[in-house]
Amino acid sequence: MDRKRWWIVPTVLGLALVVALVWGYNEYSTKNELGVALENHYQRLFFDVKKHVENVQVNLSKAMLSESRDQNVLLLSQIMNEAYFAQDKLAQMPITHAETAKTEKFLNQVADYSYYLIQNHLKGEPLTNKQRETLANLQGNSATFNNELAKLQSELADKNFLLGSLNRRQSKKVREGNEKIFQTSLVSIEKNMAKTPELIYDGPFSDQMINRKPLGLEGDEVSKKEGERIAREFFGADRVQEITAFEEGKDIKEIRIPSYTFSIRPKNTSKELAVYMGVSKKGGKVVWMANARPVPKGKLSIKEAQDKALKYLKDKGFDSMEPNYYLKYDGTVLFNFVYKEGDVTIYPDLVKVKVALDNGEVVGFDASSYYLNHHMRNIPKVNITMEDARDKVKLDFEVNSTRLALIPKGNEEILCYEFKGKYRDGDYIVYINALDGSEEQILQIIKDENGTLTF
Amino acid sequence: MRGGNYLKKFTIMTMIFVLVFLSILMFYEPNKNFIESTSRYNLYAPQILYWGSRGQDVKNVQWQLVKWKYLIGKVDGIYGAETYRAVRRFQAKNGLAVDGVVGPKTAAALGITLRGTTTPASAQGINRKNDEYLLARAIHGEARGEPYIGKVAVGAVILNRVKSPKFPNTVAGVIYQPLAFTAVADGQINLTPGKDSIKAARDALNGWDPTYGSLYYWNPATATSKWIWSRKVTLKIGKHWFGL
User: Fold this and answer.
1) pLDDT-derived band of residue A355, with 50, 70 and 90 as boundaries?
2) Cβ–Cβ of A205/B173 closer than 8 Å?
C-alpha cells in the first residue's frame, strides 16, 4: 500500500516548488516595476531641476536688461516661481543634504530676493545699482549651476547611470563609481554656491534674518551657578528636589539665544516628569520653561486660567501684557500675551503661557520671541486718521474692532491700524499702514471650539 | 510501516500549510495596507460622530436628544454610553439604520448639520492637524525612547528646517526629504504615534524650542555619517547631540 503512494511526496514538493517559483517571479517583477517607477520619477525631477534653473538664469538676464517696471515685476515673479520649483524638486532627489545644502539655500534666496524686489517695485522704488549688481551675481551663479547640471546630465547619459541606484543595494563597485561622478559635480556646484555673497535684504530667508541676535537682553554674562540659582527661583526654590544642567557643545555661543538649559526634578515626582528651563547667559533671564507633567481633565474656565497666567506674568516681571489668542489642547490652555506700549499693541514682543486646567499651574512659558525683539522703540506718530484708514479697507468688510498695532515685516516693524472683522462669514484681520495708508497684511482667522489660529 | 504513514501525512500537512501560507502572503498584504491608510484618514474626518467623539457637534446632538427626551443626562460634549443608547433609540423610532453612529442622515433627522458644512467656505478644511499628526509620527519614529523634552527638540529641529533656506519649505518636504531621517527610510514613521509624541508635536508647533534654532541632531552611538560631526555642536538633550 505504501508503495502505491510513493509519488505523493515528490508531487507535493514539486508543486511547492512551482508555487514558490511563481511567487518569487511575482515578487521579482513587482520589485522591478517599482524600481523603474522610482527611477522614472527621479529622472523627471532631474530634468525638471535643470529646466527650472535654466529659466531662472534666462529671466535673471532679462530682468537686468529690462527698464520697464511692469516687465520687471513679471520677470521677477517668474524667477521666484522657477527658483522655488527647482529647490523643491532638488530636495526630493536621493542626494544627501550635505551635498545640496548650499544649492538649496541659493535657490531659496533667489526666490525670496525676487519677492523682495517685487515689493520694492510695487512701492515705486526702482532697482538700485547695488541690487542690479546682486542680480548679476545671482545670474552668474545660476549659470555655473546650470553648466554643471548640463555636464552631469550628459555624463550620466553616457554611463547609463540610474539615479535610483544611489539609495539601492547594487553591486558595490558600480555604485561607488557612479556615486563618484555624481558627487564630484555636486561638490563643485556646492563650492560655487558657497561663493555667493551674503544677501542683505528684508525677507525670511535673508542672511541677516537667520543671523540676528536678541535685542531684548541686557546686562552682563551670568555664570552657570548664577543661572542655576535663577532657574531654581523661577520655579520656586522650595519645590526643587534636584537640578541638573544639560551638557553643552563647543559652539553653544552660536545659537540664537545663548542659554544654560536645566532639568529640574520637582519634589514628590518621578524622574520622567521633570521641568525644563532655559536661562539666557546674557542678563540671566528665563527664556522658556516646559513642564512635562500630563494634565488630567480639569474644571477651570478659560477666564480663570487667563487670570492665573496674568498673575504669573506679573510675578515674573512682565508688565502691561495683553492676552490675545488662546488654544486649548491636552488639558491645558495656551495664551499668547503681547506687550502693549500706550495704546499700541506690539506683536513682536510675544510671550506664551500655558496653564493646566486641573489646578491652574503654569506648565509652559516661552518668552524667546519677546527677548529676540523687545527694545526701546520710538513709535512714530500716525499720519492718517482711523477713519481714513477704514476707507482703505473693503467697504463691505464688517469691522468689529479697531486698534493700533506694530507688526513685524522682514527686519522692520510697521505701525498699522488693525481692523478685525468678518467678510463673507469668514474672520479676518486687515492691517493698514498708519503712516502711508497702504494695505500691509491680511490674516485669516480660523476658530473652532478649542481656540483660534491665524493663517 | 504505520510510522512511515504518519510521517507522510505530516509532510503533506506541512506542504499544504506552506502553500496556504504562501497564498496568504501573496494576496493579503495590499489589503492590510489599504485598511491602515483609511483608518488613519478617519482620525481626522469629523463628519461622523460615534462613541468617543467630542466637541460642539456632540453637544448639539445631545441638546436635541435631551429636548426630545431620548436622553436623560448631561450635555457634556462627550459621546459616551448614554448618548450611544439615546442615538440608537432615536434611530429605531425614526426608521433609520440602528447603528449608534450619527452620520449625515441621522444628523438631518435630528435637525442639525454637522460642522464642516457650517464653517464658511473660505475657512473649510484649513487647519494644522495634518502637520501636527505628521510631525507627531516623525517624532515617534525618531525619538520615542527619549524623554519628553527630547521629543519636543526633534520636533523643533524639523520646524527650524522648514524656516531655513537650506531645507524644503514645508513640514512634509523636510520629513520626507530623501536620506534625511532613518525613521522615514525604514518605515517607522508609519507607526501610530503615542500620546507623548502628539503632545510634543503640539508644543513644538506652538513655538517651544529647547534647541534654540538647531538644524541637526544625531545619536553619537549610531551616527554613521562623518559629515555630521563637522557641524557646530550646540547641546545634548537625552541621547541626541544637536547642532547648527
Assistant:
1) very high
2) no
Gap from B128 CA to chain A (nearest CA, Å):
9
Please give the pLDDT value at position B115.
62
Residues in Cβ contact with A200 at an 8 Å cutoff, skipping those fewer than 6 apart: A206, A207, A208
Report the C-alpha gap between A118 and A85 in whole angstroms. 18
Where does CATH 1.10.101.10 sit in chain B?
56-123
- Give me the residues of A, 371-430, that contact B with CB < 8 A: 424-427
Tell me the pLDDT tens digit for each residue of B101-155.
Answer: 888 788 888 887 776 445 667 776 777 788 899 999 999 999 989 999 999 999 9
Strand duo A332-341 + A412-423: pairing: unpaired
Contact, A442 vs A428, CB < 8 A? yes
Q: What is the grid cell recorded at A405?
A: 498695532
- Separation between Cα atoms, residue A229 and residue A223, nearest integer Å: 10
Q: Does A14 touch chain B (CB under 8 A)?
A: no
Whether the Cβ atoms of residue B90 and residue B65 lie closer than 8 Å to each other: yes
> What is the tens place of the pLDDT at every residue in A287-324?
999 998 888 888 889 999 999 999 999 999 998 999 98
Reply yes or no on domain A386-454 having CATH 3.10.450: yes
Closest CA to A261 of B8, B5, B214, B20: B214
Contact B46, B115 (CB under 8 A): yes
Residue B207 is nearest to which of A109, A259, A366, comparing CB atoms? A366
User: For chain A, which residues make up each domain, given as ranges?
Assistant: 8-210, 224-373, 386-454
Sign, Cα dihedral of A154, A157, A158, A163: positive
Under 8 Å CB pairs connecting chains A and B tally to 185
Residue-wise pLDDT for A34-60, tens only, equals 988 988 888 899 899 999 999 999 999
Does residue A88 have a pLDDT over 90?
yes
Identity of the residue in A248, A259, A290 whose CB atom sits nearest the CB atom of B203: A290
- Return the residue in A12, A33, A422, A454 with the most chain B beta carbons within 10 A, the one to mutate for interface testing: A12
Q: Which three cell numbers stand for residue A91?
A: 530636495
Chain B CA closest to residue A250:
B233
Nine cell digits for residue B171: 513640514
Please state the ipTM of this predicted complex.
0.89
Which residues of chain A are within 8 Å of residue B146 when distances are taken between CB atoms? none
CATH architecture for the domain at B56-123: Orthogonal Bundle (1.10)
Q: pLDDT tens, A179-217?
A: 666 667 777 777 777 777 777 777 788 887 778 888 989
CATH of segment(s) B129-243: 1.10.10.2520
Q: Tell me whether strands A439-448 and A451-454 are parallel, antiparallel or unpaired.
A: antiparallel
Question: Residue B130 is placed in which grid cell?
Answer: 495634518
What is the rounded average pLDDT of the residues B225-239?
85
For chain A, what percentages of helix, strand and coil (3-state, to nearest 5) are there? Answer: 50, 25, 30
Q: State residue B74 phi and psi, 5-degree precision.
A: -80, 150
pLDDT at A114 over 90: yes
DSSP, residue by residue, B9-66: HHHHHHHHHHHHHHHHHHHHHHHHHHHHHHHHHHTT-TTSB-TT-BSHHHHHHHHHHH
pLDDT in tens, A367-421: 999 999 999 899 999 999 999 999 999 888 999 999 999 998 877 899 999 999 9
Instruction: Return the pLDDT at B32.
Output: 45
Q: Which three three-digit cell numbers place residue A268? A: 514628590
Give the pLDDT of residue A181: 66
Distance of alpha carbon B147 from alpha carbon B194, whole angstroms: 13
The pLDDT of residue A3 is 66
